[in-house]
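Please check this today:
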Amino acid sequence: MLIAKKKKTENIAEYLLYMWQVEDIIRAHKLDINSIQENIIDKFEQPAKIRKEITDWYEGLTEMMKLEGITEKGHLQINKNVIIDLTDLHLRLLKSPKEPEYISSYYKTLPFIVELRAKSEDKSIPELETCFSALYGFLLLRLQQKEISGETQAAISQISSFLRMLSNRYHLDKEGKLEL
């Protein structure tokens, strides 16, 4: 909860990746709040009041996952909404003559997106979600200390650069400082 709040205000891309990780952590604990409490929440060196807020946050997410039927896979609607918001901004940026840098970054990233979507089972996943899935998969590979090819690293580097730019524009837009 504490990390999520901070990331949401600072970097929406990191926030979304963090929230996907939280979903997986909840699944790894079999949606058992007692297990989450023991293995995660109790490790936070925070006052009891803050730990209670963290517990409530995990309980709320766990309940939402159950209600939304994503106990095995998938993403919470609150996280899908972030993709929807980012997609809306992305489309506005692509139409803006004031954003040649963003448009250029997108077109540099597009071949990687096309390649990833071609390999995907679900062709209906939005382009940006494809980018986030690639980054998340890359992070999981690194955590598992798996070897990562140079091609994959190049693709991830470009996707990261693109999402970093989008994230920056997102926060400017939220602050009312983005002029399209």
